[in-house]
Each structure stands twice: as structure tokens, then as C-alpha cells.
Amino acid sequence: MRIDETELDGVLLLSPTPFRDERGLFTRTFDAEIFENHLGRPGLSASFVQDSQSRSSQGVIRGLHGRSGAGEAKLVRCANGAIFDVLIDIRRQSSTWGGVQTFVLDDVDYRHLYIPPGFLHGFQALSTTADVCYRIDRPHDPAEDLGVVYNDPDLAVPWPLPVSAISARDAGAGSWADLISHL
């Protein structure tokens, strides 16, 4: 597994090496020892406490979501299909505060993201169906939910497809300007 730094401070792109043969493929999607050695933080992977999965149809947008308080670290991967993944740094003390970076995650190369606390996250399904797996380091607390509307003009996220569906909550989320005035 290769681990690469990204443009956003603290975000890592994890790239496994799938083994392919006539049967299909096998890949290790996470290796705690490699991950912890890269970060120099033994035991960090043991802090992940919940695994979740979503399934979305092509064009669906989920997000942009974040957490207040201590935030939430995530490992995110697309187990089936492909997604356009979006991260926005909301850590005021960060050198990349307000930065937006996008990634394509899919079931071809199985790259996935380590997202430290302090980010908004969202994605759009690019394939007919996309299954996204999330591993998080704290139980979800709805009282800490943050959100910014997916089409906020200040962020100008370049969503690649027309929106086929979005939840009422996500469509009615606040603006980037509102969020940063409360951080």
C-alpha cells in the first residue's frame, strides 16, 4: 500500500495494490501497520469505532457534511462504482484553510482517503450505482452536524454531472459564509 500526501494538510491518499488473476482480484484495503508508521502514531487505527456504507445512484450528491467540536477522522473508499469526492478544509489554524480538493475514487484502483478532523466531505455518484464505505473515529452525534449547500458559489465545487437527487437536508444546508462566521 502506498500513502501519498495531498494538497490539503493532513489528508492522505491510500493506494492499495490489487492482485488480479483469472479469478478476479484481491486487495488489502487497509493496513494498520503501514498507516500508523506513515503517520508516526502507533495505535491510531484502533480509534476507528464505526463502519458505515451508503449506496447511491448516478448523479446523487451526498454532502457537504462535517462535524463541530472535536470533529471526526474518516477513512473513505468506493467499494463499487465510482464517485467524485470533495473535501473542504474548515480548520481555521490550518495552512490550507478554505481549500477545496477533489478526487475520483472507484472500484478499479481502490484508492481511498484518510480525512483528519476538520473537513467538510461530500461526493457525487459517477457510476450507475456507487457503494461508499466510511470508517470513523467517533460515534455520530447529530447535535454536532455541520453542512454547507453543495452548490455554494463561494466554494464553486465543479460537480461533474447534473444532480439527480439530493436530500432535503443537504439541499437546504447553509452557506459557506454562514459556516465560517460560526467557526
Using the CA coordinates, give the radius of gyration. Answer: 16 Å
CATH topology: Jelly Rolls
CATH architecture: Sandwich
Count the beta strands: 13
How many strands, what sense, and barrel or not for the largest sheet? 6 strands, antiparallel
**N- to C-terminal distance:** 36 Å
What is the number of independent domains? 1
What fraction of residues sit in β-strands? 35-45%
Q: Note the overall shape.
A: globular
Work out the helix count.
Answer: 3
Walk me through the topology.
Layout: E1 2-5, E2 12-15, E3 19-21, E4 24-26, H1 32-39, E5 50-57, E6 61-67, E7 74-80, E8 82-89, E9 100-106, E10 112-115, E11 119-125, E12 129-136, E13 145-147, H2 168-171, H3 176-182
Antiparallel strand pairs: 1-2, 2-10, 3-4, 5-12, 6-11, 6-13, 7-10, 7-12, 8-9, 8-11
Can you describe this structure?
β3 (19-21) and β4 form a beta hairpin. This protein has three helices and 13 strands; from the N terminus they run ββββαβββββββββαα. The chain has helices at 32-39, 168-171, 176-182; strands at 2-5, 12-15, 19-21, 24-26, 50-57, 61-67, 74-80, 82-89, 100-106, 112-115, 119-125, 129-136, 145-147. It has one domain: Jelly Rolls (Sandwich). It has 183 residues and is mainly β. Strands 1-2-10-7-12-5 form a six-stranded antiparallel sheet, with helices on one face. A five-stranded antiparallel sheet has the order 9-8-11-6-13, with no helix packed on it. The protein has a two-stranded antiparallel ribbon with strand order 3-4.
